[in-house]
Amino acid sequence: MPHPPPHAPISFRAATLRTVLYVLLVGAIAQGAYLEALYFPGIRFSEWGFTEFTQTLFLASSCVLLLYIRQGLKVWPNVTLLMLAFLAASLVREQDAFLDTYVADNTWKVLVAFIILPSLYWVGRNRHRFLDEFTYFGNSLSFGLFMSGLLVTYVFSRLYGRQDFWRAVLEDDYVRDFKNVAEEVVELMGYALILIAVIELLIMARRWRLANA
């Protein structure tokens, strides 16, 4: 599969516009969490609150964009499949409370298995094509942002949200809500980085499509 140049030029105006939009997105996250805490005490940081709803929205949006890149633009099908499987599994995992309540216990685990296992099998069968696609993706801004999002969401937020840590910080004033808020907001920031990474991947994919039309 042909690839565009590894460092395709980008205008300062385009880079500035994207930077401003991403800054506004991150600012909206912080403001949304602030308003959630201030005005919605009954549902704040719950399954129905701004933070967790936005986590679901970001994951779903990332999945839709990846599906468009893979099926619509038909670019980097193996890399996008692996990314899509991982984010779709994360999206299902975020709905674990809903699925456990309204479907059956551990339903999310079954759904995740149905998503991950066939995807891994497909990528394994096409591993040479995957590695060929990754030579370009692995040197891109999108990959750096995607890895940053994964580290923030699946490593830092889990360690930062440890109960022992917050008990040590708050001592006798410890309340579980503090721990939950810290973990969920950091996790949301990680999902925002992942969404930005997918948007950057979409921009690259469209550039590749136009260059090879």
Structure description:
The chain crosses the membrane at residues 20-42, 48-68, 75-92, 107-124, 136-156, 188-205. Keywords: Membrane, Transmembrane, Transmembrane helix. With 213 residues, the chain is mainly alpha-helical. It is 80% helix and 0% strand. The protein has one domain. The protein contains nine helices and no strands. α2 (50-72) packs antiparallel against α3 (77-94). The longest helix has 36 residues, at 176-211.
Largest sheet: none
First-to-last CA distance: 13 Å
Rg measurement, Å: 19 Å
Q: Which regions contain 5 or more consecutive residues with pLDDT less than 50?
A: 1-7
Q: Judging from the principal axes of the Cα atoms, what is the shape? A: globular
The amount of beta strand, in percent, is under 5%
Total beta strands: 0
User: How many discrete domains?
Assistant: 1
* Tally of DSSP helical segments: 9
Structural class: mainly alpha
User: If you average the pLDDT, what whole number results?
Assistant: 91
Helix content: over 70%
Order of helices and strands: HHHHHHHHH
